[in-house]
Amino acid sequence: MTTLYGLVLVAWAIAFLIVIGEHILWKRREKRRNPEGLPYPPGPRQLPLIGNAFDMPLRKAPLTYGKWAEQYGSLIWLVASGKQYLIVNDYEAMKELLEKRGNIYIDRDNTVLLGEMIGQNRVTPRTPYGPTWRQHRRFLNRALMGPIVKRDYGAPMMRKILSFLTVLLDRPQDFLLENKKMTAELITEIGYGMIRDDEDGGHDFVQMHLNVGKITLTTAEGYWVDHLPWMRHIPSWVPFAQWKRDAIKWRKEYNFARDYMFEAVKMQLLNTRGDGMPTSFVRTLLQEEYSQQGSKSEEELQYSERIIKDTSFSFFRAGAETTESVIRSFLLAMTLHPQIQARVRSEIDAVIGHNRFPSLEDRGVEKMPYLESTLLESMRWHPPVSSIIPHLPIRDDTFRGYFIPKGTTIIANAWHVGRDPQLYHEPNVFKPERFLKRNENDGPLTLDTSTLNPLEYVFGFGRRICPGRELALQNIWIIAVFVLWAFEIRAKEGMSMEDGYKAADEERFNFAIVSQTLPFECDFVPRSQKALQMIRKAAI
Ligand code: HEM
């Protein structure tokens, strides 16, 4: 026993020495890279060796970053665990760095356990800058362009929303869970054309994704090996190396899910040549690749297949919870603001009426400006990815007189932009009309371009901007218009606005990687008998 403790002590001493050694080397490197001695942006005081390790917020980080902005200004510098962080709180700086200098601020962070050891570096949002990432983007952009989204993905969206409406009729209390299910199933169906297969008794694709999501959540906080990468070489049989044994198990589960779903679609395509197969991201891209079979080598085809497999697997990770988040915010906003909801409903009634379902042809600011601005306001009020996904510069840079070394983790605080009083009058008030104006007294409402449109930042910036934004916006619109066409959303009976819903915004959202409203309740009251019949009939 004593020997074991001795060994552990020695291991810790070695780890400590390595940390000191790395720190000294890092300091020297920094000096060489910044010969003019340009300052770093201000930030909380750094302690020797550990820097700001104890300052890094573990929960609701965007709120802490926002508070720091009052103290240090909009650019904040932090150093922790051998990494440098630049928190950016103002929109102009985000635009300049991540968009105008998008060719520099284009890389992603590497995490040893989740990224390298489990394999998440292969999904697009985590893929480092380079030829593989560029090929990811080519495929994603090709399959997610606006016209393609409208042509190919409108139909599955309509099917999903109709079954969601029947759930709202039968089990309205389950609306949060069903919203999660609807967005998860849709994104899986768009990616693979199916949500389960018939092989071996069938695998539930959505469940596979959700299991993988749990792995991401468990590991996202980081492990020692993320700070001391040499630890990855520790054999899995060593006592205290449970993390290594877990990583091996998780990698298997992760790879199985990714490969299985892709192979299911590929086999179906090879067996049927696509006859009777539903349209999907994987099918479309594979078909295109196979049609060029003559002009491509075997390796080129295999490489393309790998990229299609990885990009389709990214869909769920990037597209499901984000869309779910906007819908939750929208539903909460409608519950909290009955007058705004009534105005959106009357706009829907005027354009669509109650004798037909809404359709994608009804979409557009010129047709239903108030609905559009309410959706924009929902995204400003609560951007789903509150701190974007960090961008890293691929070379040293200077900005506003400060030195920004290559590899700095740039965190853009989108939440803070949405609450910036310089950009939005009364930013804590939910006010869709802030995005609208009338050119003449009686003229139609149009978008007021003098107010910063949240679409300029909630989907990120530059060459890393979200490739799924058209798909997401179309889906969000369809869900919102159908729900308010069919129902009036009311605050839960017996629960007044004062006791049930009145909370500061900071308390309403969880600010996780993809932030969600906390659970809330509301009633869905059918608006017309006719609509009710139409929903029931369509769902049969
Ligand atoms: C409301 C819904 C959505 C929001 C708010 C959202 C937001 C974002 C944000 C902030 C980023 C990071 C951009 C950056 O680094 O600058 C991102 C990246 C990404 N999103 Fe979305 N997204 C949504 C829906 C979707 C959907 C539906 C898909 C795909 C079907 C998708 C696929 C991706 C991918 C693949 C990336 C990684 C891009 C890269 O690293 O090159 N997203 N998204």
Second rung of CATH, namely the architecture of the domain at 145-239 and 320-385 and 419-539: Orthogonal Bundle
**For the largest beta sheet, what order do the strands appear in spatially?**
1-2-7
Major beta sheet summary: 3 strands, mixed
Overall mean pLDDT stands at: 90
* Uncertain residue segments: none
Rg, rounded, reads 25 Å
Would you list the SSEs in sequence order as H and E? Answer: HHEEHEHHHHHHHHHHHEEEEHEEHEHHEH
Strand content: 5-15%
Distance between the termini: 68 Å
Shape: globular
CATH top level assignment of the domain at 145-239 and 320-385 and 419-539? Mainly Alpha
Give a list of the ligands: protoporphyrin IX containing FE
State the fourth-level CATH superfamily of the domain at 145-239 and 320-385 and 419-539.
Cytochrome P450
Oligomer: single chain
Number of strands: 11
CATH topology of the domain at 145-239 and 320-385 and 419-539: Cytochrome p450
Protein architecture, described:
Belongs to the cytochrome P450 family. The chain has 540 residues and is mainly alpha-helical. The chain has a domain at 145-239 and 320-385 and 419-539: Orthogonal Bundle (Cytochrome p450). It has 19 helices and eleven strands. The chain has helices spanning 2-33, 61-72, 91-100, 112-118, 131-143, 146-170, 175-192, 205-220, 224-227, 242-272, 281-291, 298-336, 338-352, 369-381, 414-418, 469-486, 497-501, 505-508, 529-539, and strands at residues 75-80, 83-88, 105-107, 392-393, 397-399, 402-404, 409-412, 436-438, 445-447, 487-491, 522-526. The strands form five sheets. It has a three-stranded mixed beta sheet. The chain has a two-stranded antiparallel sheet with strand order 3-4. Strand 5 and strand 6 (402-404) form a beta hairpin. The mean pLDDT is 90. It binds protoporphyrin IX containing FE (HEM). The site of protoporphyrin IX containing FE has 28 residues, from helix 5, helix 12 and helix 16.
